[in-house]
Write a structure and sequence with these properties.
mainly alpha; about 325 residues; 13 helices; globular
Length: about 325
């Protein structure tokens, strides 16, 4: 959290202080909690309820209000966590989170709400996007091209992809070594190294595509994929920027981006590996996910392998 940010409130600083002391959640999560708490305060003011400290009844009514407004259960759960976290940050007595969680579990049983899944990008779509950006040839297009191809090749989360620095990438005989300092499931910051082999096609070979971008970027230290606009030139991208690049690039090749986002790159990598008969354990080792999480992406490709309906002779 930048100390010179004039928009920060005392509550934001308290949340950040607790994060630093506990070292358990990410900075982005803290920012999300700050937003959630502000939304909760607004609701409490509207209904003349005490926000901090709050009562269990008020918290449950707030969650009920969110659900009746059509908000997703996952959104309500994040807001609940924000309120509880704020109480801990200020040393206040927390409302009963068990009752709130029971309410959300009941809503899940009634709604059977499915998690939103990003449509995976295919290798063919990746090549088409890459080719189109190469034809455009602008600095932004070549950066976006390298961002997409390396993002697909590494299956990195959008925050990690945006955070890469030039020093994190090493060219070797086999291809690339990408160093990742910290990930969502690596809160201790042990880091990991990802080996990326050379590709066979010009528009999806991460080595050739990245070299083409670096010829424009230059060798100055800093973000691997910096902003190139004249107002914020050289600054690091964020996850939302990656999402916009994915959506805009898909739209450019005639694919409706409504069900797509930054996670479509990661989902596409896992799906393509599954369709190539790569085992779950090998994929989970490459992506840094648990085998159970990998299987969520795997199901679409797995359903056609040795499918029992093929024995029916229809």
């Amino acid at each position: 959290m930048a100390c010179h940010d004039s928009t920060l409130t005392i509550e934001d600083l308290r949340l950040e202080e607790l994060r630093l002391r506990k070292g358990l959640i990410s900075h982005n999560t803290v920012l999300g909690y700050g937003h959630g708490l502000r939304m909760y305060r607004t609701w409490c003011e509207r209904f003349h309820r005490e926000a901090l400290p709050t009562s269990t009844e008020t918290l449950c009514l707030y969650l009920t209000s969110l659900l009746t407004e059509g908000k997703k259960i996952t959104t309500a759960r994040r807001r609940k966590c924000a309120v509880l976290y704020a109480h801990r940050a200020q040393g206040l007595t927390c409302p009963d989170g068990t009752e709130a969680e029971e309410l959300l579990r009941g809503a899940q049983r009634l709604r059977a709400e499915k998690p939103r899944r990003m449509r995976p990008i295919t290798v063919q779509e990746l090549r088409r996007m890459s080719a189109g950006l190469a034809r455009a040839g602008t600095t932004a297009a070549m950066r976006n091209r390298a961002l997409l191809v390396l993002g697909f090749a590494t299956a990195l989360r959008r925050a990690n992809l945006a955070a890469l620095k030039l020093a994190d990438v090493e060219f070797v005989r086999q291809g690339l070594i990408v160093n990742v300092d910290r990930e969502k499931n690596d809160q201790q910051g042990h880091g990991r190294r990802i080996g990326v082999l050379r590709g066979r096609h010009a528009n999806s070979d991460p080595v050739r595509v990245l070299r083409a971008w670096l010829r424009l970027r230059g060798g100055a230290p800093g973000p691997l994929f910096p902003r190139v606009s004249k107002f914020r030139r050289g600054e690091q991208l964020d996850g939302e920027c990656v999402c916009r690049v994915v959506k805009k690039s898909l739209a450019a090749i005639g694919v409706d981006p409504i069900q797509s986002g930054a996670h479509s790159l990661r989902a596409g990598t896992v799906t393509a590996m599954g369709e190539a008969n790569v085992g779950v354990l090998r994929i989970s080792t490459f992506t840094g996910q648990s085998p159970q999480m990998v299987e969520r992406y795997f199901r679409r490709s797995e359903m056609w392998r040795n499918n029992a309906s093929g024995t029916l002779g229809l």
